[in-house]
């Protein structure tokens, strides 16, 4: 009997399947790192995984606490600096990046800066970081939205998707031509982008979710893929990998707390000797 899985596991596995063997991939903390680690372990052994801080060709050992957490990695080829990572992106060497989304419009432009008026915000968000650079110059970008919203107009334009749709992104001079977001992954489904118009297109719905459930979240007339399907089920091997690599946050925090106590106790014991 196939194993049961959680929504988080479904999202991670769906994202991981977008990584191809041999691709250069910039990962962020959280879902992207787990997805990258799984892809490299199970189906993309020659993918080069990188962190924005400058750690290249990593094989994650545990989920990192931040983008410069070298302790989470093993066997990385070398470490460089933030500047070099960004210039590498500008020169077209990054195949895939992952970005979280707070607001997204129909053409994949995103807001990660502020909700409401910029000077009197309802919510101040983490900001742009490297998002504008990576979404502008990575060959393809995977967007993830767990608690954000679809909007007709962004409260703040942080990073460019397909701008006004059609060929407007390529016409703007962003490099390389044909780059841009390829997928938006939400808690309800998987969206792609129409080949010609570059408008969001519902491609898959997660188990137990209907098209109507998704339409309620979207303030425009959502286009549906003619071959709309249910999101592919995770395999037991994929589920097992995630549970070994990234157990629940509560378990992870408890383990780190216990390790910290044990370490402090051992140091005190050593001093006593």
Attribute tags:
single chain; eight-stranded mixed beta sheet; Glutaconate Coenzyme A-transferase; alpha/beta; globular; 273 residues; three-stranded mixed beta sheet
Walk me through what this model shows.
The protein has 273 residues and is of the alpha/beta class. The chain has one domain (7-272): Glutaconate Coenzyme A-transferase, CATH 3.40.1080.10. The chain contains 8 helices and 17 strands. The chain has helices spanning 7-16, 31-42, 82-90, 131-137, 168-171, 211-215, 236-245, 249-272, and strands at 24-27, 48-51, 55-56, 59-60, 73-74, 78-79, 96-100, 103-104, 110-111, 114-116, 121-124, 140-145, 149-150, 181-186, 189-193, 200-205, 223-230. Strands 2-1-7-12-14-15-16-17 form an 8-stranded mixed beta sheet, sandwiched between helices. The protein has a 3-stranded mixed beta sheet with strand order 9-8-13, with no helix packed on it. α1 (7-16) crosses α2 (31-42) and α2 crosses α7 (236-245). The model is unreliable at 249-261 (pLDDT under 50).
Question: How many domains, as an integer?
Answer: 1
CATH class: Alpha Beta
Shape type:
globular
User: In terms of structural class, how would the helical and strand content be classed?
Assistant: alpha/beta
The percent range for strand residues is 15-25%
What integer value in Å does the Rg equal?
20 Å
Helix content class: 25-40%
Side by side, the strands of the main sheet go 2-1-7-12-14-15-16-17
- Number of strand segments: 17
CATH topology: Glutaconate Coenzyme A-transferase
- The first-to-last residue Cα distance is 55 Å
The helix/strand series, from N terminus to C terminus, equals HEHEEEEEHEEEEEHEEHEEEHEHH
